[in-house]
Amino acid sequence: xxxxxxxxxxxxxxxxxxxxxxxxxxxxxxxxxxxxxxxxxxxxxxxxxxxxxxxxxxxxxxxxxxxxxxxxxxxxxxxxxxxxxxxxxxxxxxxxxxxxxxxxxxxxxxxxxxxxxxxxxxxxxxxxxxxxxxxxxxxxxxxxxxxxxxxxxxxxxxxxxxxxxxxxxxxxxxxxxxxxxxxxxxxxxxxxxxxxxxxxxxxxxxxxxxxxxxxxxxxxxxxxxxxxxxxxxxxxxxxxxxxxxxxxxxxxxxxxxxxxxxxxxxxxxxxxxxxxxxxxxxxxxxxxxxxxxxxxxxxxxxxxxxxxxxxxxxxxxxxxxxxxxxxx
Length: 328
Fold this sequence. Notes:
Number of helices: 14
Oligomer: single chain
Strand content: 5-15%
Largest sheet: 6 strands, mixed
Order of helices and strands: HHEEEHEHEEHHEEHHHHHHHEH
CATH topology of the largest domain: Glutaredoxin
CATH architecture of the largest domain: 3-Layer(aba) Sandwich
Structural class: alpha+beta
Helix content: 40-55%
CATH class of the largest domain: Alpha Beta
Shape: globular
CATH superfamily of the largest domain: Collagenase ColT, N-terminal domain
Distance between the termini: 20 Å
Radius of gyration: 23 Å
Strand order of the largest sheet: 1-2-3-4-6-5
Number of strands: 9
Protein backbone atom coordinates (compact mmCIF):
# COMPACT_ATOMS: atom_id res chain seq x y z
CA UNK A 1 0.00 0.00 0.00
CA UNK A 2 2.89 2.34 0.80
CA UNK A 3 4.37 1.92 -2.71
CA UNK A 4 1.03 2.04 -4.54
CA UNK A 5 0.19 5.32 -2.76
CA UNK A 6 3.34 6.97 -4.08
CA UNK A 7 2.87 5.44 -7.55
CA UNK A 8 -0.57 7.01 -7.62
CA UNK A 9 1.02 10.33 -6.67
CA UNK A 10 3.49 9.92 -9.58
CA UNK A 11 6.59 9.59 -7.46
CA UNK A 12 8.34 6.61 -9.15
CA UNK A 13 11.71 8.35 -9.22
CA UNK A 14 11.43 9.23 -5.55
CA UNK A 15 10.70 5.59 -4.73
CA UNK A 16 13.79 4.44 -6.60
CA UNK A 17 15.89 7.17 -4.99
CA UNK A 18 14.80 6.36 -1.45
CA UNK A 19 15.31 2.61 -1.94
CA UNK A 20 18.84 3.24 -3.22
CA UNK A 21 19.56 5.52 -0.25
CA UNK A 22 18.38 2.82 2.13
CA UNK A 23 20.47 0.13 0.46
CA UNK A 24 23.54 2.37 0.50
CA UNK A 25 23.08 3.22 4.18
CA UNK A 26 22.55 -0.42 5.08
CA UNK A 27 25.66 -1.59 3.27
CA UNK A 28 27.98 1.09 4.63
CA UNK A 29 31.02 -0.31 6.41
CA UNK A 30 32.39 1.09 9.64
CA UNK A 31 35.70 2.69 8.78
CA UNK A 32 38.92 1.91 10.62
CA UNK A 33 42.25 3.69 10.84
CA UNK A 34 44.78 2.65 8.25
CA UNK A 35 48.44 3.44 7.76
CA UNK A 36 49.15 4.62 4.23
CA UNK A 37 52.63 4.52 2.69
CA UNK A 38 53.69 7.60 0.74
CA UNK A 39 56.12 5.99 -1.71
CA UNK A 40 57.42 9.30 -3.02
CA UNK A 41 58.60 10.64 0.33
CA UNK A 42 59.09 7.26 1.99
CA UNK A 43 57.04 8.56 4.90
CA UNK A 44 53.84 7.49 6.59
CA UNK A 45 50.68 9.50 6.65
CA UNK A 46 48.12 8.27 9.13
CA UNK A 47 44.66 8.68 7.64
CA UNK A 48 41.40 8.00 9.42
CA UNK A 49 38.16 8.08 7.52
CA UNK A 50 35.16 9.87 8.96
CA UNK A 51 33.30 7.60 11.37
CA UNK A 52 30.07 9.07 12.68
CA UNK A 53 30.22 7.20 15.96
CA UNK A 54 33.86 7.08 16.97
CA UNK A 55 35.53 10.30 15.95
CA UNK A 56 36.24 13.01 13.43
CA UNK A 57 38.28 12.85 10.28
CA UNK A 58 41.93 12.98 11.31
CA UNK A 59 44.93 13.96 9.23
CA UNK A 60 48.36 13.50 10.78
CA UNK A 61 50.86 14.98 8.36
CA UNK A 62 54.55 14.21 8.88
CA UNK A 63 56.52 17.29 7.87
CA UNK A 64 59.95 15.63 7.98
CA UNK A 65 59.54 12.52 10.10
CA UNK A 66 58.02 9.08 10.39
CA UNK A 67 55.54 8.21 13.11
CA UNK A 68 55.39 4.59 14.19
CA UNK A 69 52.18 2.61 14.50
CA UNK A 70 52.04 2.83 18.30
CA UNK A 71 52.39 6.63 18.26
CA UNK A 72 49.65 6.93 15.66
CA UNK A 73 47.33 4.66 17.59
CA UNK A 74 47.76 6.68 20.79
CA UNK A 75 47.24 9.96 18.97
CA UNK A 76 44.08 8.73 17.27
CA UNK A 77 42.71 7.24 20.50
CA UNK A 78 43.35 10.49 22.36
CA UNK A 79 41.77 12.65 19.65
CA UNK A 80 38.72 10.39 19.46
CA UNK A 81 38.38 10.54 23.24
CA UNK A 82 38.51 14.35 23.26
CA UNK A 83 36.03 14.57 20.39
CA UNK A 84 33.53 12.28 22.11
CA UNK A 85 34.10 13.94 25.49
CA UNK A 86 33.14 17.32 24.03
CA UNK A 87 29.99 15.80 22.55
CA UNK A 88 28.84 13.79 25.56
CA UNK A 89 29.98 16.08 28.41
CA UNK A 90 30.00 19.56 26.89
CA UNK A 91 27.09 19.01 24.48
CA UNK A 92 29.16 20.16 21.51
CA UNK A 93 27.83 19.78 17.98
CA UNK A 94 30.70 19.58 15.55
CA UNK A 95 30.44 20.38 11.87
CA UNK A 96 30.47 17.26 9.68
CA UNK A 97 33.30 18.98 7.76
CA UNK A 98 35.53 19.11 10.85
CA UNK A 99 39.05 17.82 10.25
CA UNK A 100 41.57 17.41 13.04
CA UNK A 101 44.76 18.25 11.18
CA UNK A 102 48.07 17.73 12.99
CA UNK A 103 51.33 18.60 11.20
CA UNK A 104 54.40 17.08 12.86
CA UNK A 105 58.06 18.06 12.49
CA UNK A 106 61.03 16.19 13.93
CA UNK A 107 63.54 18.91 13.12
CA UNK A 108 63.10 21.97 15.32
CA UNK A 109 64.49 24.18 12.56
CA UNK A 110 61.97 22.80 10.07
CA UNK A 111 59.19 23.32 12.62
CA UNK A 112 60.15 26.99 13.16
CA UNK A 113 60.63 27.57 9.43
CA UNK A 114 57.14 26.30 8.66
CA UNK A 115 55.58 28.48 11.37
CA UNK A 116 57.43 31.54 10.07
CA UNK A 117 56.11 30.78 6.60
CA UNK A 118 52.43 30.32 7.52
CA UNK A 119 52.24 32.73 10.49
CA UNK A 120 55.16 35.21 10.49
CA UNK A 121 53.91 37.21 13.49
CA UNK A 122 53.44 34.22 15.80
CA UNK A 123 55.59 34.17 18.95
CA UNK A 124 55.95 31.92 21.98
CA UNK A 125 55.49 28.65 20.07
CA UNK A 126 58.43 26.54 21.26
CA UNK A 127 56.88 23.08 20.93
CA UNK A 128 53.42 23.47 19.38
CA UNK A 129 50.63 25.80 18.43
CA UNK A 130 47.21 25.89 16.81
CA UNK A 131 46.64 28.32 13.95
CA UNK A 132 42.92 28.97 13.76
CA UNK A 133 43.11 30.59 10.33
CA UNK A 134 44.48 27.33 8.92
CA UNK A 135 42.48 25.05 11.25
CA UNK A 136 45.76 23.25 11.82
CA UNK A 137 47.83 22.20 14.82
CA UNK A 138 51.61 22.24 14.36
CA UNK A 139 53.78 20.19 16.70
CA UNK A 140 57.49 19.66 17.18
CA UNK A 141 58.20 15.97 17.82
CA UNK A 142 60.93 16.14 20.41
CA UNK A 143 62.66 13.04 21.75
CA UNK A 144 60.41 12.83 24.80
CA UNK A 145 57.38 10.87 23.54
CA UNK A 146 55.17 11.75 26.50
CA UNK A 147 55.89 15.45 25.96
CA UNK A 148 55.15 15.07 22.25
CA UNK A 149 51.79 13.40 22.89
CA UNK A 150 50.93 16.01 25.52
CA UNK A 151 51.52 18.77 22.97
CA UNK A 152 49.36 16.99 20.39
CA UNK A 153 46.45 16.71 22.85
CA UNK A 154 46.93 20.31 24.04
CA UNK A 155 46.71 21.68 20.51
CA UNK A 156 43.89 19.31 19.56
CA UNK A 157 41.83 20.73 22.42
CA UNK A 158 42.33 24.22 21.00
CA UNK A 159 41.18 23.00 17.60
CA UNK A 160 38.06 21.26 18.92
CA UNK A 161 37.05 24.00 21.34
CA UNK A 162 37.53 26.85 18.87
CA UNK A 163 35.63 25.04 16.13
CA UNK A 164 32.48 26.10 18.02
CA UNK A 165 33.58 28.87 20.41
CA UNK A 166 36.04 31.00 18.47
CA UNK A 167 36.69 33.68 21.11
CA UNK A 168 36.61 31.72 24.35
CA UNK A 169 38.12 33.53 27.38
CA UNK A 170 41.75 32.53 27.70
CA UNK A 171 41.53 31.08 31.21
CA UNK A 172 39.06 28.43 30.00
CA UNK A 173 40.56 27.92 26.55
CA UNK A 174 44.09 27.45 27.87
CA UNK A 175 42.91 25.82 31.09
CA UNK A 176 41.17 23.00 29.23
CA UNK A 177 44.16 22.60 26.92
CA UNK A 178 46.51 22.41 29.92
CA UNK A 179 44.12 19.93 31.55
CA UNK A 180 43.86 17.59 28.55
CA UNK A 181 47.60 17.94 27.93
CA UNK A 182 48.12 15.31 30.65
CA UNK A 183 45.76 12.86 28.97
CA UNK A 184 47.09 9.29 29.29
CA UNK A 185 45.57 6.84 26.81
CA UNK A 186 48.28 4.18 27.06
CA UNK A 187 46.09 1.81 29.09
CA UNK A 188 42.50 0.60 29.01
CA UNK A 189 41.18 3.42 31.18
CA UNK A 190 41.69 7.05 30.24
CA UNK A 191 43.50 9.04 32.92
CA UNK A 192 44.12 12.77 33.41
CA UNK A 193 47.09 13.44 35.64
CA UNK A 194 47.65 16.64 37.68
CA UNK A 195 50.58 18.93 36.88
CA UNK A 196 52.85 19.01 39.98
CA UNK A 197 54.84 22.11 38.96
CA UNK A 198 51.75 24.24 38.50
CA UNK A 199 50.10 22.74 41.57
CA UNK A 200 53.11 23.47 43.77
CA UNK A 201 53.28 27.03 42.47
CA UNK A 202 49.66 27.64 43.50
CA UNK A 203 50.23 26.01 46.90
CA UNK A 204 53.22 28.27 47.54
CA UNK A 205 51.26 31.38 46.61
CA UNK A 206 48.50 30.22 48.93
CA UNK A 207 50.89 29.50 51.82
CA UNK A 208 52.62 32.87 51.35
CA UNK A 209 49.29 34.69 51.10
CA UNK A 210 50.20 35.89 47.61
CA UNK A 211 47.33 34.53 45.56
CA UNK A 212 46.53 36.76 42.56
CA UNK A 213 43.34 38.81 42.48
CA UNK A 214 40.94 36.36 40.85
CA UNK A 215 38.42 38.99 39.76
CA UNK A 216 41.16 40.95 37.98
CA UNK A 217 42.41 37.75 36.35
CA UNK A 218 38.95 36.75 35.11
CA UNK A 219 38.32 40.23 33.68
CA UNK A 220 41.56 40.42 31.70
CA UNK A 221 41.25 40.92 27.96
CA UNK A 222 42.51 37.96 25.94
CA UNK A 223 45.19 40.15 24.36
CA UNK A 224 46.50 41.20 27.79
CA UNK A 225 46.37 37.59 28.96
CA UNK A 226 48.64 36.65 26.05
CA UNK A 227 51.09 39.45 26.86
CA UNK A 228 51.36 38.32 30.48
CA UNK A 229 51.66 34.70 29.37
CA UNK A 230 54.70 35.61 27.29
CA UNK A 231 56.36 37.00 30.43
CA UNK A 232 55.53 34.28 32.97
CA UNK A 233 53.75 30.97 33.43
CA UNK A 234 51.36 32.42 36.03
CA UNK A 235 48.36 32.79 33.67
CA UNK A 236 48.57 29.14 32.61
CA UNK A 237 49.09 27.91 36.17
CA UNK A 238 45.93 29.69 37.29
CA UNK A 239 43.98 28.47 34.27
CA UNK A 240 45.05 24.86 34.82
CA UNK A 241 44.23 25.02 38.53
CA UNK A 242 40.71 26.39 38.06
CA UNK A 243 39.88 23.88 35.33
CA UNK A 244 41.31 20.95 37.31
CA UNK A 245 39.16 22.06 40.25
CA UNK A 246 36.03 22.20 38.08
CA UNK A 247 36.70 18.95 36.22
CA UNK A 248 36.94 16.87 39.38
CA UNK A 249 33.18 16.28 39.58
CA UNK A 250 29.96 16.28 37.59
CA UNK A 251 28.77 19.69 38.79
CA UNK A 252 32.01 21.34 37.71
CA UNK A 253 31.88 19.72 34.28
CA UNK A 254 28.27 20.84 33.89
CA UNK A 255 29.34 24.38 34.75
CA UNK A 256 32.02 24.29 32.03
CA UNK A 257 29.42 22.98 29.58
CA UNK A 258 27.12 25.90 30.47
CA UNK A 259 30.02 28.36 30.14
CA UNK A 260 30.96 27.11 26.68
CA UNK A 261 27.34 27.29 25.55
CA UNK A 262 27.08 30.82 26.95
CA UNK A 263 30.29 31.93 25.23
CA UNK A 264 29.14 30.45 21.92
CA UNK A 265 25.96 32.58 21.99
CA UNK A 266 27.21 35.86 23.49
CA UNK A 267 29.60 38.55 22.40
CA UNK A 268 32.72 38.01 24.49
CA UNK A 269 34.06 40.94 26.51
CA UNK A 270 36.28 41.22 29.57
CA UNK A 271 33.36 40.58 31.96
CA UNK A 272 32.00 37.49 30.16
CA UNK A 273 33.58 35.01 32.60
CA UNK A 274 32.20 36.81 35.67
CA UNK A 275 28.75 36.96 34.09
CA UNK A 276 28.92 33.22 33.35
CA UNK A 277 29.96 32.44 36.94
CA UNK A 278 27.17 34.62 38.30
CA UNK A 279 24.67 32.89 36.01
CA UNK A 280 25.70 29.24 36.43
CA UNK A 281 27.86 28.75 39.54
CA UNK A 282 25.95 28.32 42.85
CA UNK A 283 26.76 31.41 44.92
CA UNK A 284 28.16 33.27 41.88
CA UNK A 285 31.78 34.27 41.31
CA UNK A 286 32.43 35.09 44.98
CA UNK A 287 31.51 31.55 46.05
CA UNK A 288 33.57 30.07 43.22
CA UNK A 289 36.62 31.92 44.52
CA UNK A 290 36.05 30.63 48.07
CA UNK A 291 35.55 27.04 46.91
CA UNK A 292 38.58 27.11 44.65
CA UNK A 293 40.83 28.68 47.31
CA UNK A 294 39.79 26.02 49.84
CA UNK A 295 40.72 23.36 47.26
CA UNK A 296 44.13 24.79 46.26
CA UNK A 297 46.15 23.38 49.22
CA UNK A 298 44.62 19.89 48.90
CA UNK A 299 46.45 16.89 47.47
CA UNK A 300 45.57 16.31 43.83
CA UNK A 301 44.60 12.92 42.46
CA UNK A 302 44.29 11.49 38.96
CA UNK A 303 40.97 11.90 37.18
CA UNK A 304 39.68 8.66 35.66
CA UNK A 305 37.50 9.48 32.67
CA UNK A 306 35.18 7.15 30.83
CA UNK A 307 35.31 6.94 27.06
CA UNK A 308 31.76 7.47 25.87
CA UNK A 309 30.46 7.30 22.32
CA UNK A 310 27.54 9.47 21.17
CA UNK A 311 24.23 7.64 21.02
CA UNK A 312 23.92 5.57 17.84
CA UNK A 313 20.79 6.44 15.91
CA UNK A 314 19.43 3.40 14.04
CA UNK A 315 19.81 3.64 10.26
CA UNK A 316 16.09 2.95 9.80
CA UNK A 317 15.27 6.07 11.84
CA UNK A 318 17.66 8.14 9.74
CA UNK A 319 16.11 6.73 6.56
CA UNK A 320 12.57 7.75 7.49
CA UNK A 321 13.80 11.16 8.69
CA UNK A 322 15.19 11.72 5.20
CA UNK A 323 11.87 10.68 3.64
CA UNK A 324 9.91 13.04 5.90
CA UNK A 325 12.33 15.87 5.08
CA UNK A 326 12.04 15.26 1.31
CA UNK A 327 8.24 15.11 1.42
CA UNK A 328 8.06 18.20 3.62
